[in-house]
Design goal:
- The protein has one domain (2-210): Protein Transport Mog1p, Chain A, CATH 3.40.1000.
- It has five helices and ten strands.
- The chain has helices at residues 2-16, 22-26, 111-116, 125-136, 196-205, and strands at residues 49-55, 60-66, 71-75, 78-82, 103-110, 148-152, 155-163, 167-176, 179-188, 207-210.
- The strands form two sheets. It has a seven-stranded antiparallel β-sheet with strand order 3-4-5-9-8-7-6. The protein has a three-stranded antiparallel β-sheet with strand order 1-2-10.
- β7 (155-163) and β8 (167-176) form a beta hairpin.
- It is globular.
């Protein structure tokens, strides 16, 4: 169920962002995950590991930091992170999400694309998140609730959460110079909120660096 919701949510978001090769994005093996029994890495807000991916279309690269013992993969320009390596290979037909499973998706929405989608030239984090949540709405994605503006390690962000019987998801935005950081974190529904601090730290660690 968690895998299915992430696939639907991220693919809906990607299609509406006009991302190239959206079908390949939806077929990513890393999203065929998060089922069955598995061993998970320790939960820690320390983020000693990092992964950098090139975003040629945006003229830069994205770097995301994550906890020791966790796993990360470049998934067609997004970075997917999980606390279990089994998340990359689990049988997607299994419906039960293993306890303590955490998955985070980080991506960048270019500022220019935000303008095309109707954002003002200088939007607030709340306005950006309202737009992203609107594009992700529908299907099997849990309905997101009220948007809250928060600070993560001194960085202004916005967040909104939703859950159903199986999965809890929290959506985040952070504004940077060249675009908007979009983060989506997911856990089991009965563990909703238990990893918020950790997921927020991953979101706040995400940096876009211009290379052109």
């Amino acid at each position: 169920m968690l895998r299915r919701l992430l696939v639907i949510g991220l693919c809906v978001f990607s299609v509406n962002m006009f991302v190239a090769n959206a079908d390949e994005f939806c077929d990513s093996k890393i999203l065929q995950a998060l089922y069955g029994e598995c061993e998970t890495a320790p939960m820690s807000a320390d983020l000693p590991q990092s992964l950098t991916v090139s975003l040629e279309d945006l003229g830069g690269e994205m770097t995301v930091s994550y906890p020791d013992g966790w796993f990360a993969m470049d998934d067609l320009g997004s970075i997917l992170i999980s606390n279990t390596e089994d998340a990359f290979t689990m049988d997607p037909s299994i419906d039960d999400v293993p306890p303590r499973t955490v998955v985070v998706n980080m991506t960048i929405l270019p500022a220019e694309m935000g303008s095309v989608m109707g954002l003002d030239a200088d939007p607030t984090v709340t306005e950006v998140l309202e737009l992203v949540a609107q594009f992700m709405a529908g299907g099997d994605v849990p309905e997101f609730g009220e948007i809250e503006e928060i600070e993560i390690n001194g960085i202004t962000a916005a967040q909104t959460s939703g859950s159903d019987d199986s999965v809890a998801m929290t959506l985040y935005t952070v504004i940077q110079d060249r675009g908007f950081v979009i983060g989506l974190g997911a856990t089991r529904a009965d563990e909703a909120g238990s990893q918020d601090e950790l997921i927020q730290s991953i979101v706040a660690s995400t940096i876009f660096t211009a290379t052109d």
